[in-house]
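Long-time lurker, first post. I've been practising inverse folding by hand and with some scripts of my own, and I keep getting stuck on stretches where the structure tokens seem ambiguous. Below is the full token string for one chain I'm working on. Before anyone asks, I'm not after the true native sequence, just a reasonable design that respects the backbone. If someone could post their per-position residues I'd love to compare against what I wrote down in my notebook.
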């Protein structure tokens, strides 16, 4: 056919026929993917020329001792074959050319690829973290080798209950870790939710329906709980230190506080577990924008949300909490004399009570001043010695 320069049945040609007679020898020009597990299951798309005038011309597709079964519905006359490598019981890494045998009027002809298809075994070396909250959404980083072989769009990370448990629990079913990125040595995924707080799960990478297990266990732990919050105020500039008390804060990976109020932009700040104390979570309030909406919101409650992996706080049944918006503090100070150690300095200002005394830090040059007390308009400070 002149339209694609392919050898095909005259009845299948929708463009002028350039010549008749025997077809040229079949040729394989490319194939994808170029690797897969030795157990089979990989679907390969093979491109070339003169790959049969019709599907029934395809006698066989092989890769060494592996048979690749052609899929008729995806056959492209003369130029493309899609096949699926038959499943076999093998754990041997190997590489071979792809061979396609085609029936022609002058006899069977075989095309052999210049590139070799590689049979590789994926392996998991480690993953981090090794635990997360029952609600899921923990970002898990898996390291290993050959993690992106085969049909990567079908690759899955499955967490299934460890067979080392005496009895399989009905409330610890398999759960999928949703893949966000994948390459040869790394997979990043987000854990699914578990049916129980104490599920011990094997992490497995599933490539073309073949599972490759890790030797370590991922443990689902109870979700964090929130019981108290102090203080319950914020200011437009943000930066107020909030302390949440509760339990199990150590199971979360990336806690964040987010403005969850339709009047303002949804800005976010990170939170930290204080001194590895599983009962204290410290967050810094984000800056509030836009500025045009702030004046009307002074002395009103603003909604926030703490997100801890898959769980939300400060209560498992309430996604949001409120902080009262107060005005930013302002300060003014003019020093017109030489200062000595232990001199008392009075800093004038306004709205100083909007922040805790512990959050006010005063420096004179490089020297630190100890904040002795505060009122709404004055910050008395003592100049400390160097």
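-- Answer (accepted) --
I ran through it position by position. Result:
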């Amino acid at each position: 056919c002149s339209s694609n320069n392919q050898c095909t049945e005259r009845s299948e040609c929708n463009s002028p026929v350039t010549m008749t007679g025997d077809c040229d020898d079949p040729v394989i020009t490319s194939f994808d993917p170029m690797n897969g597990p030795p157990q089979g299951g990989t679907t390969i798309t093979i491109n070339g020329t003169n790959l049969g005038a019709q599907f029934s011309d395809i006698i066989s597709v092989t890769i060494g001792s592996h048979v690749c079964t052609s899929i008729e519905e995806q056959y492209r006359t003369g130029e493309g074959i899609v096949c699926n490598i038959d499943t076999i019981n093998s754990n041997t890494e190997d590489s071979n050319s792809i061979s396609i045998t085609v029936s022609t009027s002058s006899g069977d002809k075989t095309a052999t690829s210049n590139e070799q298809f590689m049979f590789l075994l994926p392996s998991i070396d480690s993953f981090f973290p090794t635990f997360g909250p029952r609600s899921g959404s923990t970002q898990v980083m898996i390291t290993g080798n050959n993690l992106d072989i085969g049909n990567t769009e079908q690759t899955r990370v499955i967490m299934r209950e460890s067979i080392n448990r005496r009895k399989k629990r009905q409330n610890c079913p398999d759960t999928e870790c949703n893949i966000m990125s994948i390459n040869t040595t790394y997979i990043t995924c987000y854990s699914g939710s578990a049916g129980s707080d104490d599920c011990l799960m094997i992490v497995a990478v599933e490539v073309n329906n073949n599972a490759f297990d890790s030797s370590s266990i991922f443990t689902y732990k109870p979700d964090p709980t929130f019981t108290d919050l102090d203080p319950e105020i914020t200011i437009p500039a943000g930066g107020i230190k909030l302390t949440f008390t509760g339990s199990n804060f150590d199971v979360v990976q990336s806690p964040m506080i987010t403005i969850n109020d339709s009047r303002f932009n949804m800005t976010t700040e990170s939170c930290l577990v204080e001194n590895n104390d599983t009962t204290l979570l410290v967050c810094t309030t984000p800056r509030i924008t836009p500025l045009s909406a702030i004046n009307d919101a002074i002395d009103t409650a603003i909604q926030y949300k703490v997100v801890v992996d898959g769980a939300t706080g400060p209560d498992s049944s309430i996604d949001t909490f409120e902080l009262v918006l107060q005005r930013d503090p302002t300060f003014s100070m003019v020093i017109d004399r030489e200062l000595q150690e232990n001199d008392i300095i009075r800093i004038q200002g306004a709205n100083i009570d909007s922040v805790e005394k512990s959050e006010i830090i005063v420096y004179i040059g490089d020297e630190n001043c100890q904040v002795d007390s505060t009122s709404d308009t004055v910050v008395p400070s003592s100049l400390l010695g160097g």
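A couple of notes from the structure itself: The first strand starts at residue 27 and ends at 32. The CA atoms of residues 194 and 354 lie 42 Å apart. Happy to go over any region you disagree with.
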